[in-house]
Amino acid sequence: MKRDMESAVRPPPALPVRLRRPLLTPGRIGIYLFLATAALFFLVPLYVMLVTSVKPMAEIRLGNIFALPAAPTLEPWRNAWQAACTGLECEGIRGGFWNSVRITVPSVLLSIALGAVNGYALSFWRPRGANALFAVLMIGAFIPGQVLLYPLVRALAAVELYSSLPGIVIVHVIFGMPMMTLLFRNYYASLPQELFKAARIDGGGFWRIFFELMLPMSTPVIVVAAIMQVTNIWNDFLLGLVFAGSDNLPMTVQLNNIINTTTGERQYNVNMAATILTSLVPLALYFFSGRWFVRGIASGAVKG
Questions:
Q1: What pLDDT was estimated at residue 303?
Q2: Could you tell me the CATH number of the domain that includes residue 148?
Q3: How far apart are CA 117 and CA 210, in angstroms?
Q4: What is the rounded CA–CA span in Å between residue 101 and residue 249?
């Protein structure tokens, strides 16, 4: 009884005291400094472009590029969109915008569709020579595009597609095929083989398994592929200049014509406004779908 009373009045054992980590360690300070430096590296040029694009030329001539505009104006934006000279015509950059849309949309859809089918076939069906075909595709991904320009020009000219909208779409699909195949192949290779085997036992064929089983599970990698292709094709300059033709010049080519014009006064505010307009689509894409992009990578889109 006495032992029971002593155990009842005995104080509970003291909990271990957790030492608080200092808020600022040398490693954390280094990370913050690196992130701040990287942010300034990208944000300072964007800031200069934005403030310059809303300044009248009288303020720009003063030379203080970091000063906020005293009399902000949107006239440079209007001129960049519908009045700037992109060569012999002075209709702004809006024509190049719609040309870029007509080039980008079918190129992205076709390259993703073909890449998904290739990756699916190479991951599950494995036809004879699949490894050799995949190796050829990967070699093509590392060949500089400039090496292929002349053969592609001759090939498209032979089938009368050079300097046409279908021609530039085909070129972008060809250049995007290796990376799209790699993305989808690695993604499908990370899926359980049992799903495919069960579908085969149930009588599913090549296309039925693809459309009813694999494609619904491919949303993460499709988002990643779409972001990559839209960014690459929209920002392309060389292929659009060589293959698009004068009637289908993309926005980047027309931007180059605006900035490098040698007639009259150089309108820096119009140049900056045109540059921002050209980059709005990739910026908006990353801004609204960046979380999907990270989620797609984390789900295995680039594993293999």
A1: 45
A2: 1.10.3720.10
A3: 8
A4: 11
Mark whether 57 and 137 lie in a shared domain: no
Q: Could you tell me if residue 90 is inside a domain?
A: no
Cα maximum dimension of the chain = 107
pLDDT along the chain (304 residues), means of 10: 54 58 77 92 91 92 88 92 83 92 96 93 80 78 84 92 93 92 88 87 88 89 90 93 91 90 78 93 83 64 43
Cα 62 to Cα 43: distance, rounded to the nearest angstrom: 23
End-to-end Cα separation, the chain, in angstroms: 68
Establish if 242 belongs to a structural domain. Answer: yes
For 69, the domain range is 26-73
C-alpha to C-alpha distances, 249 to 111, 233, 287, nearest whole angstrom:
21, 13, 26
Q: What's the full length of the chain, in residues?
A: 304
Residue 114 near residue 173, CB atoms below 8 Å: yes
Residue 229 is which amino acid?
A: Q
pLDDT for the residue 10: 60
Using an 8 Å Cβ cutoff, are 70 and 133 in contact? no
User: Residue 274, Cβ neighbours under 10 Å: how many?
Assistant: 29
Closest CA to 93 of 282, 275, 298: 275
Rounded CA gap, 169 and 104, in Å?
Answer: 8
Q: At what angle do helices 268-296 and 251-259 cross, to 10 degrees?
A: 150
pLDDT score for 166: 94
Total-model pTM: 0.82
Q: How many CA atoms lie within 13 A of 219 on its CB side?
A: 5
Residue at 18 is within a domain: no
What are the backbone angles phi and psi of residue 267, rounded to the nearest 5°? -90, 95
165 shares a domain with 256: yes
